[in-house]
Amino acid sequence: MNFKTCTFLAMMSMAATAVAGPFSLAAEKSLQISFGGTPLVMEEALVLTSAAKANPPVSLLRNPQTDISDLGGNRRMYNIYGETDGVKYRREVSAAADGSEVELAFMAHCPAYQEHLTDSTIRYQLRLPLAAFEGCTYTALHGRSRKLIKVTGTMTAASGRIADAPIRQIAFSGQGRQLVIDCNPKGVNTHGDYLPNAVIGLWDLSVEDDCLVLSQPYAPLFFGGTMAAHLVFYEGTHEDFTRRHATNSYDYYSELLPDRQLVFGARKFGKQYTDAGVNAFSLEKGFGWLATVGLRVSTHRLQGALYSAVRGNGEASFRMTGLRSGVHIITMVTGVGQEGAGPFSVSCNGRVVASDLSIAPLTVQTLSFPVWLESGEAVFTFAGDWAVSTLNDQLLQTSYEDYTFRRGFWRHPDLFEPSVMFSSASYAKAPEFAVSVSKYPLPEPGQETAAPLKSWELPSSYAVFKPGEDWRGRANIGSLGPANNGTFSEFNTPELIARRVQELKADNLNVILTNGLLSRHTFPTHLQRVEQNLADFVRAGHPHGIKFVDHQDHSLLWDMDSGFRVLVANMPYLQQTVDGQLPARGFCPSNVQYFAKYVDRIVAHVKATGIDGIMIDEATFHGLKFCGCADCRQAFTADSGWYLPADECSPDLFNKESALCGPGCVGGRSASVTSGII
Length: 678
Known about the structure:
The chain has 678 residues and is mainly beta. The chain is 13% helix and 35% strand.
């Protein structure tokens, strides 16, 4: 029976399926997804293709276990799972109750030292009928997470590999339908570009005979590894990307760009701001005060957003609409002149965010907090003797991108899981949403460099060894195997550890750089397991003369595993832009409180594992605009006697010729010093 015949029979059987929306799903016996009554996905497969080309491909979906469960009446989940030929796997598919979308999650795990798997290819794939897409125009996105590339075309039997590269999304239009297949529903903040052991947001899509084949391949090496991915099918267009995703670009060192920046009271301000002043709410503008009686403007200097403020005594509410659904970071910055403010409180949508706030004269206060905003609007209420200079909104992630806050990788948390990575237990605890309040002196514009410039010596430190015991000059460095994508679960028994140590010794390696889970702090539920595995390797390796140096990142708060959960729980420690106090996706190396916590954690880690050294990476600021947090500003003044500008219009900011802020100047040297402390 050929595929076209299977498609026809499936269409007949699916005609009897109730369709609450554009999508319907049947997966009791085999996976079938229809869209508007037309078959969309007709077959799935998990295939092992041996490195020995003479061997035929083998199906790994042989006799899987099945589970059909309802999730609070909102979704019916169809799971298959099991272990075949040493490969553990699970696939979960579910449709929204209203039929608006279908979500698929897949994971497979290969253990280490499986000769029949090493260098073979494991491929999970879905077969879609080409007839359902032929003649449709499409817009696809591909490329690295830092820069997505858009391609367009028309689907034909000769289309071959779409985009000639793995894709992140494709939107089809034609045959009376508009369909999007999102291959990266968690978004580019995950930086999921490489296998193994990451949630990969890149899938291959190719025309093969009378089918479109959507596939995810992995060729495991000797250490094995996990392949994991999601797909979401929904009715929509390419333009829905900005509704469902917070950003189309993520780089290690980058700003978390704001959706909206409003200024209150200033006459002259930076181009990033929109004037809100004391204006009443406007539905057209999407912001404004619900009542303007009692509002007044207080001005210390005419230029600069933080040198003026809208003030009031009593209660006043400011409304914003047109917000994207998701986790937002709201930052309210208030600069006051000779007239202080407080006490006052701030609420968001009826929930008190901060209370008993007071601001002394000539002071800047930054209040930042994360909040779920689902309805598209927010009402901020000020009560007491309050003041506000700017209100900033950054979207951390959309609700569509949530696979860690209110749920995990799997919708059903109580079934077999193939890997220790992305386990449901990692996301079971409700995340903590912390509030950050910080303050620094408001500099007098134009007088930032009035005081004499202090001189200082750059401190340095280095390891001290007893005579003859410095092993670094004789280091022949290697790794455990999986390099940056390791999970410390590859060699997880005494036998596997002993075998790997013997191999390292046979390769004449005497220093091992253990560089898995680099942003160790974004994997909090794995830390105890990682330390135990490292300690086991140290005990096994030291008798053979092997030293161990652990490689970790310091500042990155990308959406790796629990990265964004860690970010919202540590708001007081984030880097902030120098021209607006906007938080970044990274810890500040100069934050005094965080540095103390970090040192304590590293010392405890060294004691628990017995490692011989540590390589700390990414201990840096995240771009030209960083860092302007209160700790950095006050440390800069203490070291130099000068002040970083608080006026975003200052001619010194981002000025290559400035003695204050240009490259190689005092500000640049201060950044180098603070980065080098770690």
